[in-house]
Amino acid sequence: MKFDLFHPDILNQPYRAYTQSHLYEQGLLRGSAPMPEFPECWYVIGYNEALQVLRNPIFVHDRSRITGLAPLAQFSGEALQFWEKLTEWPLFLDAPEHTEKRQLLGSFFKEALILDLAKVIQQKSDTLLDQALTKPSFDFMHEFAYPLSLQVICHLIGIQPPDLRWFKSHSQAIANTLDLREGQHDYQESLNAVKELNEFFCEQMEDPLPNSLLSSLMSKGLNKQELLPLLLQIIFAGQETSADAIGLSLLTLSKHRNVWQLLSDNPQLIDSAVREGLRYDSSIQFSGIRVATETVAINGTEIARGESVLIALGACNHDPRYFKSPEVFDIKRNNSGPELSFGHGIHHCLGIHLARLELQIALQALVRKLPASWRIESFEMRPNRLFRGPRSLIVSV
After folding, report:
1. Would you say residue 78 lies in a domain?
2. C-beta separation of 38 from 74 below 8 A
3. Which domain holds residue 364?
4. Tens digits of per-residue pLDDT, 50-84?
């Protein structure tokens, strides 16, 4: 069955497209290419089908293993220069290179160590929210979600946070180029963003904080060319997706005031609300495009060698075969924990514990400090199919 998950009507209301239960009969849909450089692909929209793909090592990012051509042969010019930079990110690497990079970072993202950041995150949350609440209304994204997530990830890396506006202009340029859409991307703008962010990191390498991720990586003898892709992925993913998730959480709760009241009366339910929120509205809607190096059957559907697959994470989290009444925001749901919002398999997000802790503490601060009369005056979603979240969220208190 042919289906276009990138139709303009779906951009701001992606979950409406998934309410048609017949779409989930096989868990996979044959669809048009999300980017002109790629052929027609399979959209994986089923929860269990996604697990099968993500666990299977025959699905890889590097298309040259199939085509025999040079990596990124489908790109040229500024597009090629941009993707050459980003394919050094662990996110886009296949094993064994991916495993080696991940092991360098793994110890700093263990749950026990992340929990030690709780006081830091709480202090930053309280400070930002107290400042915002001195006004009758404020932009929640620019005055709370964006600065909180940037400050926290910079603390973990062991660097001083850059100017927020400067950083957001650069991170959004990269996000816009990563967006899965047809048409021209502004590769020059994103190339400049990568260049200036790398220059920023080179300056920070001169004096890293002790016992930090950066100082640890430098002590292992990594040179700048090895360090820069790691640092850029960490700060980009750690800020961009966490901020979006915080914004989506408040937006969801504004539409479910009964749940907000329940959390106000029972703050011990906040962790459940975070987990269900991540399932209900994911800040990452799609995985990276992978190619099958062998012919394989997924739930009875044959994917031929050389065919592309794209996992629609948002759709998988709304699979009615796995989640009962997936359109319902239910914080007492007993299976909202293993949501696919953080991926699965070898590319399972390293920052899962940090993201959840950040969301929990941010939501605790909001429940504690926002007056009962708070409401959202207006919001605007970012025009991006891959990264989902508000780019403006005006809260009135």
Report:
1. yes
2. yes
3. 8-396
4. 999 999 999 999 988 888 888 888 888 998 999 99
| Burial class of 220 by CB neighbour count within 10 A (0 to 12, 13 to 18, 19+) | exposed
Q: Is 2 a member of any domain?
A: no
Residue 1 domain-assigned? Answer: no
CATH number of the CATH domain containing 165: 1.10.630.10
Say if pTM beats, i.e. exceeds, 0.90.
Answer: yes
Between CA 230 and CA 249 the distance in angstroms is: 28
Distance CA 51, CA 81 (A): 32
The answer to the question of residue 3 being in a domain is no
- Which span out of 27-41, 123-137, 222-236, 304-318 was modeled with the highest average pLDDT? 123-137
Structural domain count of the chain: 1
Place 9 in a pLDDT band, splitting at 50, 70 and 90: low
- Residue 123, token pair as written in the block: 């202090």
Q: Is the pLDDT of residue 213 over 50?
A: yes
Site of tokens 């979950």 = 15
CA distances from 117 to 80, 114, 161, 272, 357 (A): 38, 5, 16, 20, 9
